[in-house]
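Team,

Forwarding the record for the chain on the shared tracking sheet. I've put the sequence and predicted structure together so nobody has to dig through attachments.
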Amino acid sequence: MKKTLVPLLLVGGALAAPWCRAAPPVDVEQVMSKPLADLTGKEGLVLTVKYPPGGADSIHRHNAHAFVYVLEGSIVMQVKGAAAVTLKPGQGFYEAPDDIHVVGRNASQTEPAKFVVFLLKDRGAPAVIPVP
């Protein structure tokens, strides 16, 4: 697997939400990227994301259809205008292209969490876009 730096998912910089600035960094690995011949200009991108205990994302968007599937641990996800949800292994979450991801964090301060993200996005477009 190719390690991919997705710096906007890493917490601790100026883009991080105030409640998560001290959170440990998130580990993001690219599993695969594939142009989709029958969807002109689109590609699928698969990532694994590992939240360490207390790990969290900064506020962002994807400009993509994002499908999340939890493998280990428990995570909290929320898009702007919707309630936060806590997900456990075997559960999923969806973000639409115009959603703003306001909460993405490990629900635990003591156990890690791991999930898979599948993005259906424009070919060559960034996977993550900061939201100030």
